[in-house]
Each structure stands twice: as structure tokens, then as C-alpha cells.
């Protein structure tokens, strides 16, 4: 290659590098909410990670870090699509139940459809540890943050919530070491419920399927404060109106909700 060719190539590479630098933001804007000493929007370096934000916002010692949430705008579209799909399927379940003369299922589906419709799309990424001390010593948990993200640290709740195929949604006192299925004694499942299992959603967004019938009963699973129990609809009753993974999808959607009164009312 001639000297002129090398110069042209070098200039092209320099221009490409400058363009890449111009495209990459030098700073990020991340918000902190809830039980933190420095709430609100703050500026961080472009390569900031969760630990940088968690340390900077001065998380209150009384904050309930197990229920802390990382909210990402990029996740909202998929969650909006998921909620819309669930609302549609619940409507189909209701219509099919009416046609079959199954009034309990029709009423349950209508009530739960209204509940799901009213839930806020959060952009929460479930299953992420946000304990500042843990983030410092666990690099695998210390994800990069992105423009527009929010970290939310709730106060410690004292209850668990039961929704789905129940006579009425319930908010019950959390009992240390009590098995999840025992909460159903105070919040009875409806006739539309699957009698064999429930879904447990812990405050960090982890989802577990728990067998509860006499013939398949799983080991006890205690609930942390702020956990959810989703009582699923009977699979045979909703077949044809909802996808096979409907109940699992509902539990996954619940895992995106926040530990706040807004996520309940």
C-alpha cells in the first residue's frame, strides 16, 4: 500500500474512533427511590455498576434489601405486552366459562382480569440482588446500570399477599417459618382454582411452583415478608382459552411488581 493509502486508512480509523466516542455517553442518569438517604436523580460515570449507585444513595439500614428493585425502561415494553396478553386470555377464559355455564370461573376470571389490568408496568428485573454489601463482594451480581434506570429500596413489610383463583384477594400477616400453603386457610381458594399447586413469588422476584395436594405435597416453603402467593386457575377449565403456560406467565408478571401499596390497591 502506498504512503497515501496508509494515511487515508489511518484517517478513516481515527474518524471511526471519534464517532464511537461521540456515540457513547460520558455519563448516566440513574434515580434512587424509597428508603435511601439521597433520593432522586443523580449523574454517574458511563461505566457505573449497581454497587456504585447503591453506595452513593446511602441505603437506609432499615431498608428491606430483599425486596429492592432494579427498574429498567428497556424492559417495560415486554412487560406491557405480557400484561396485555394476560388480560386478553382472562377475557377469553371468562367468555368460555360463561358459554359452559361455569359461573364461579367466569366471576373469578373477570375479577382477576380487572386486577391485572390495574397493575403498573414497572420495568423491574426480577431476581437481582441489591444489597450494597453483597454487591461489593459478588462481581457476578454487580451489573452495569443504564441510562434512565431506577433503584427502589422499600421498607420492610409485615404481610404476604394472595391473589388469583381465590374468593377474594387477601393481605395476611407474615408468619415466620410457616409453609406457604397454610396461608390458604385464611384466604380460601375458589372452585376455579387448581387444587394441586400454587405459585410462590418471593420479594426478590424469584418464582417457585409448589405442589400442595395430599398426593404430591412438596416440602414446606416459608415466605419472606412481602411475598406473593398466586393461586392458579384449574388447567382443564381454562384449556382452549389460554396458553398452557398462562399460570406461569401470571406468576412471572407478579414478580415484576414492587413492594409498595401501589402494587396492591
Overview in brief:
The chain is an alpha+beta fold and 265 residues long. The chain is 32% helix and 17% strand. The protein starts with a helix and ends in an 11-residue tail after the last helix.
The biggest sheet amounts to:
5 strands, mixed
Rg from C-alpha positions? 23 Å
**Parts with pLDDT < 50 across at least 5 consecutive residues:** 17-22
Distance between the termini: 71 Å
Shape: globular
Portion of residues within helices = 25-40%
| Element-by-element helix/strand order | HEEHEHHHEEEEEEHH
Proportion of residues in β-strands:
15-25%
In the sheet with the most strands, the strands line up as: 6-5-9-7-8
Amino acid at each position: 500500500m502506498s504512503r497515501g493509502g496508509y494515511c487515508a486508512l489511518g484517517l478513516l480509523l481515527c474518524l471511526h474512533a471519534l464517532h464511537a466516542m461521540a456515540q457513547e455517553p460520558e455519563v448516566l442518569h440513574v434515580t434512587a427511590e424509597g428508603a435511601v438517604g439521597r433520593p432522586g436523580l443523580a449523574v454517574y460515570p458511563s461505566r457505573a455498576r449497581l454497587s456504585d449507585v447503591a453506595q452513593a444513595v446511602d441505603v437506609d439500614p432499615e431498608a428491606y434489601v430483599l425486596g429492592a428493585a432494579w427498574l429498567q425502561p428497556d424492559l417495560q415494553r415486554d412487560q406491557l405486552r405480557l400484561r396485555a396478553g394476560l388480560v386478553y386470555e382472562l377475557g377469553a377464559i371468562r367468555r368460555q366459562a360463561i358459554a359452559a355455564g361455569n359461573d364461579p370461573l367466569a366471576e373469578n376470571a373477570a375479577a382477576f382480569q380487572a386486577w391485572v389490568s390495574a397493575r403498573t408496568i414497572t420495568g423491574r428485573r426480577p431476581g437481582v440482588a441489591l444489597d450494597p454489601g453483597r454487591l461489593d463482594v459478588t462481581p457476578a451480581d454487580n451489573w452495569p446500570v443504564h441510562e434512565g434506570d431506577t433503584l427502589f429500596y422499600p421498607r420492610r413489610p409485615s404481610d404476604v399477599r394472595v391473589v388469583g383463583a381465590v374468593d377474594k384477594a387477601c393481605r395476611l400477616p407474615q408468619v415466620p417459618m410457616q409453609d406457604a400453603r397454610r396461608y390458604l386457610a385464611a384466604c380460601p381458594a375458589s372452585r376455579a382454582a387448581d387444587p394441586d399447586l400454587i405459585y410462590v413469588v418471593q420479594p426478590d422476584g424469584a418464582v417457585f411452583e409448589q405442589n400442595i395436594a395430599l398426593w404430591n405435597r412438596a416440602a414446606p416453603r416459608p415466605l419472606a415478608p412481602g411475598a406473593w402467593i398466586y393461586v392458579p386457575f384449574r388447567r382443564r377449565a381454562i384449556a382452549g382459552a389460554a396458553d398452557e403456560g398462562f399460570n406461569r406467565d401470571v406468576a412471572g408478571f407478579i414478580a415484576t411488581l414492587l413492594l409498595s401499596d401501589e402494587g396492591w390497591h
